[in-house]
Automatic annotation (TrEMBL):
This is Class I SAM-dependent methyltransferase. GO terms for biological process: methylation. It comes from Sphingomonas hankyongi. Gene3D superfamilies: Vaccinia Virus protein VP39. GO terms for molecular function: methyltransferase activity. Keywords: Methyltransferase, Transferase. Signal peptide: none annotated. It holds the Pfam family Methyltransf_24. InterPro entries: SAM-dependent_MTases_sf. The keyword Cell division does not apply. It comes from the Bacteria.
């Protein structure tokens, strides 16, 4: 069994995020985009988020964890509209240390949304922003080969949403993750993602787990190295809900 991870309450996370927005334009623009549904590039162009939006609580949680990131490298799976990338990049810059934030996503959104946000992030963070046009499955595996294990302090997973996508992302993120680092799973209201959280809770005592510290998100912290025997397996609960059936009624903003 994993131990429970304690994190600040949602309202505190949001208040801290709003304070960061006063110091970093990328965070202010991302918050405005999450609230209005439109990312307004300072050059006048506008990108439309539709339902690809995290809540302010989720954004605040990511900012809190970005402050704690113990390594040069942080990683994200799924660029989407780039809102979470903007929050992570902006918060990491405010820590005043060199860093790189690498995002795997070879697809982007079907209607081409997100390109204006990406061009903003490229300009604003020319050294730190890396969009890698590979799937997380091949991209994170190559990153483990190239940079070695335990090189990342924060991995945010919001890419493919089927069970095997998220489980593969967890397995690779676990290898990339440094001791003390965090894996964040978006969309953990939903059964495929909740199943991965349940696997970790039952089988991975090397992780402390906060399930739903804010709506629709779970956090896993690597608190020690994996010392299980080769045959270790503990049964875990698989929610008996299909497809995109949430564990509770969704707030309006947590739909993707
Ligand atoms: C829900 S969006 C991410 C939203 C993002 N967090 C934001 O703030 O806008 C999911 C993204 O994951 C990408 N994706 C899907 N499967 C993927 C995979 N196997 N590897 C990397 N990215 C993937 C999609 O192209 C899409 O852009």
């Amino acid at each position: 069994m994993s131990v429970e991870l304690r994190l600040p309450p949602e309202q505190k996370l949001i208040a801290e995020l709003q304070a960061l927005a006063k110091e970093e334009q990328a965070i202010a623009l991302a918050i405005d985009a999450l609230q209005t549904g439109h990312f307004k590039h300072p050059d006048g162009r506008v990108d439309h988020l539709a339902n690809v939006r995290v809540s302010l609580g989720q954004a605040g949680l990511l900012a809190f964890l970005a402050k704690e990131c113990p390594t040069f490298l942080s990683v994200e799976v799924g660029f989407g509209m780039g809102s979470t990338a903007a929050i992570l990049l902006g918060t990491r810059r405010l820590q005043g240390k060199p860093f790189v934030h690498a995002i795997f996503d070879p697809f982007g959104l079907p209607d081409g949304s997100g390109k204006i946000v990406q061009s903003y992030l490229e300009q604003r963070f020319p050294k730190a922003f890396r969009r890698i046009m590979k799937s997380s499955e091949t991209g994170m595996a190559a990153m483990i080969e190239n940079r070695g294990p335990e090189c990342a302090g924060l991995v945010f997973i919001d890419g493919g949403h089927r069970f095997e996508n998220v489980m593969t992302d967890f397995v690779l993120a676990d290898q990339l993750l440094a001791l003390g680092g965090y894996i964040v799973l978006d969309d953990s209201f939903f059964p495929a993602i909740e199943t991965v959280v349940n696997y970790v809770k039952a089988n991975r005592p090397d992780y402390a787990v906060a399930h739903l510290p804010v709506p629709n998100c779970s956090v896993l912290r690597k608190v020690r190295r994996d010392q299980r025997s080769w045959d270790a397996f503990k049964p875990f609960e698989v929610p008996q809900r299909e497809n995109w059936t949430p564990s509770r009624k969704l707030p309006a903003q947590a739909e993707s």
